[in-house]
Design a protein that fits this description.
By secondary structure, this protein is an alpha/beta fold. The chain folds into 2 domains: 308 residues, TIM Barrel, CATH 3.20.20; 108 residues, no CATH class. It is built from 16 helices and 21 strands. The chain starts with a strand and ends in a 31-residue tail after the last strand. The mean pLDDT is 94.
Amino acid sequence: MYDLIFRNARIADGLGNPLVDGDLAVVDGKVAAIGTISDPAIEELDAQGLVLAPGAVDLHTHYDAQLTWDQTASPAGAVGVTTVVIGNCGFGIAPAPPDKRATILANLAEVEGMALSSLEAGVEWGFETFGEYLGFLRQKGVYPNVAVLASHTVMRTAVMGDAGSERLATPCELDAMLVLFREAMDAGAIGLGSSTNENHRGAGGIPIASRLANDDEFRAFAKVLSNYDHGVFMMTCGEHHGIPFMEEMSQLSGKASFYAPLFHYAHQPQRAAGIMRAAEVARTRGVPVYAQGSCQPLSLSFTLDHAYILKAMSPWPATEDRDELRCILSDPSFRAAFRETLAKPDRQHIFKGRWDWVPVATTVLPKNAGLAGRTIADIAAERRADPLDVFLDLGLEEDFGTKYTLFMLNMDEDGVAELLVNDGTLISLSDAGAHNAMLCDAGYAMYLLGHWVRNRGLFDLPTAIRKVTSDPADAYGIMDRGRLTPGAWADMILFDPEVIRITNMEQHFDLPAGGERLLRRAPGLHGTRVNGVRVFDGENYLSVQAPGHVLTEFSASRPQLGMPVSR
């Protein structure tokens, strides 16, 4: 007898093959049979013609801290995600020597836009080493499956303290970091995460530690990675590293490298396409280099005292003290200098003064209620005022309570479509768990199925499902996931393809210490199962024994992505 049977489903295998009408049976958390099944099950469900598909595999999340207080990794299951990779960009919370924990949290709060008060109130330090962190997650229990990257910046901080963000490592310090990396790989890390992106700054606005590493330090890590059968290298790149460097890392390590982020830039329309093509050329030479891209417009919501995306732009002040900010932002000389910054061509800064891409999200004063939803450009034109003045004056008038949304990247859909159809672009890059009060892109897979499949017709449904399930799983060596085939783990979502979509962001204050975050819902998603266990019923998370696995064993193979596989 089977544990579970879904009957009358349209079954997507996650490999790109056509959907099959029939039944799917589960035993011991794995897919046992597909087709017309006459045998009974303990639990039988009528899918009523809805699509039963693998859950999404989200390669780029930041749930590292959240998972210590939230088993569900909300909103993962509520938006169809069943497997997550954490430790991205080199930001994690292990290893965590007690005397370095405050620094680790302060840097994480700044670079990933998290409330420090929530981190300090929420993180449970039931571990010190990387292996102990994995054991802690396993003991606590997780709803999604979790794979963990060893975090470059955290290892640097553990060895060098604050000096890790100030200078190169000495040979002895590098040796100590490599010992920590070996310990992490031996414990079950999926690979190494790092960043050299110029916008990545830690507490006090100083560069995060991995930005102080030279190329020889990266090469040393790659050589350690070469000693293991499994492993990946992911890096959030800035202006100084691109596909040639990622290709070198793959050649040294013998492992796949993943470039992030791949977004379409309106002011550099050929930039992302050039990165995509360079990675494609590397793969034609047999070097497994991929890019992590997004299928959604990238936006951030913020107030003037937490203007994360503007802090990297001189002369924007690093302080969040409101009295200091009021003085600086009111100063005409500051405004003149910031206008000059916006007018200068600068590849590393995302915001270019497109005030038509900056709507007012929420206001505080009743007299300003009518401004919500309108762009700064529109308001400035109506008032015959300078947009920067309108932007700053409104926020100051409302005592920093005005929330703005900044649409930055992926605004040209034709340019985005060119990136998405390339099978070297792994659709992910949700940043889920980070920038909680600024964005919520965790529902990217639901957006893909609704917008790009149903509304735009860029993909057929089986192809789109493959792009967010088996492709990312196979590229990272995550075994028996991202597919519904006999013997694979039963990570599944049930959804209505005619309804599936993602809602606008909704404000919540449910993080530790009352911290704010933005969430989205996925109408049309009827349920999410991890290893056969239902964790989300379409409306709510369920109180179940956490069914997710902390993943520590991975495949060494690197299959060719994008080719449907016959069952």
